[in-house]
TrEMBL record:
A Pfam family reported for this protein in Swiss-Prot or TrEMBL: IIGP
PROSITE patterns, per the entry: G_IRG (PS51716)
Keyword Membrane included in the entry's annotation: yes
Name of the protein: IRG-type G domain-containing protein
InterPro entries (UniProt xref): G_IRG_dom (IPR030385), Immunity-related_GTPase-like (IPR007743), IRG (IPR051515), P-loop_NTPase (IPR027417)
Keywords from the named record: GTP-binding, Hydrolase, Membrane, Nucleotide-binding, Transmembrane, Transmembrane helix
Similarity section: Belongs to the TRAFAC class dynamin-like GTPase superfamily. IRG family.
Ranges for domain IRG-type G: 106-308
Top-level taxon in the UniProt lineage: Eukaryota
Species: Pisolithus tinctorius Marx 270
Length: 326
């Protein structure tokens, strides 16, 4: 049986680590996305960018040879089956996509993708330290009817982050790579794949294409608090008959059931999509907001603190070079 995670030294230490990461990001210089640099390398004059890309290429030489061979075999098989090959964006398409999303050099661009109703706007608000009703918050609870990407700079000007709400794709009626290219998702530095009730084929398709462009991804399940409450209700909880201990006992069971089922379902879906094992972060926006605001953490926290820590670490390791001591 699982237990409610206590707020103790482990969390305090993790918060301190997150603060250190954030400070290093603010003091650091940006490097480039190695995949996009390969596409537009003729227009990247900065020597340190080319060196970083070359170093990354050297480290991954063996893996790339194996990947290239696997890609060749896959392409030949697809051509035999009459399947159109994946087409990478041209330099012009990369530039156009950057203009469209107002890409800023020196910033780290997080995109949140998922079908309509998964709570993308609310998650973005929580990640930015805002409630849905706060000024400058992304519009939440509105039916998604537009194909326009929402752009939301971090309200703290010291944080070099921009957050994007990617319109839900629904059921793809076109090749997944074509949807990915048409949306310009290849320009983002990190993509969070958010789901609520069900991890879909569209979610898996986004992950597949992120791998092609070497874009880091994070799988996040939202609304954990609501899902756990629903399980408790299904267990027959009656507040009128609660002596004070019944809810807590049911909560522990429901929480463990929800976490176990979520992780198992995602891994099964990844396997079916021929994708590697990947962690799923289970969060509620209420608890995530306490993390970003630096408030006292709830004992009901699941993966909120770890998600923030890993996102900050991703920003530092992928786009920033720590200042060297003089």
């Amino acid at each position: 049986m699982g237990q409610v995670v206590p707020v103790g030294p482990m969390f305090i230490g993790m918060i301190k680590f997150m603060i250190a990461i954030l400070l290093s990001i603010r003091k650091s210089a940006k490097t480039a996305n190695p995949t996009l640099d390969a596409i537009i390398k003729a227009e990247s004059p900065e020597d340190f960018v080319r060196k970083a890309a070359q170093e990354a290429a050297d480290r991954a030489a063996t893996d790339k040879v194996e990947a290239a061979e696997a890609a060749r075999r896959d392409a030949e098989e697809r051509l035999r089956n009459g399947i159109q090959p994946v087409i990478l964006p041209t330099p012009e398409e990369v530039r156009a996509a950057k203009v469209r999303v107002e890409y800023q050099e020196g910033m780290f661009h997080f995109a949140v993708a998922g079908v309509a109703g998964t709570g993308k706007s609310s998650l973005i608000n929580a990640l930015r330290g805002l409630r849905n009703k706060d000024q400058g918050a992304a519009g939440a609870g509105v039916v998604e009817t537009t194909s326009t990407i929402g752009r939301y700079p971090d309200p703290n000007s010291d944080n070099p982050f921009v957050w994007y709400d990617i319109p839900g794709a629904g059921t793809l009626s076109q090749p997944d790579w074509l949807y990915f290219n048409n949306q310009g998702l290849f320009v983002f530095d990190c993509i969070i794949v958010l789901f609520d009730n069900r991890f879909t084929q569209t979610d898996a398709a986004i992950l597949t294409n992120c791998r092609r462009f070497q874009i880091p991804t994070y799988i996040v399940r939202s609304k954990a608090d609501s899902h756990i409450r629903n399980i408790i209700d299904d267990m027959g909880y009656d507040p009128d008959e609660d002596d004070g201990a019944q809810y807590q006992s049911m909560y522990v069971q429901a929480r463990e059931q929800f976490i176990t089922a979520t992780r198992a379902t995602v891994q099964r879906n990844l396997q079916e999509a021929n994708l590697p094992h990947q962690k799923v972060y289970i969060v509620s926006n209420k608890n995530l907001l306490t993390v970003t605001k630096g408030r006292k953490l709830s004992p009901e926290i699941i993966d909120e603190l770890e998600l923030m820590k890993d996102l900050l670490e991703e920003a530092r390791s992928r786009r920033c070079v720590l200042e060297r001591p003089a």
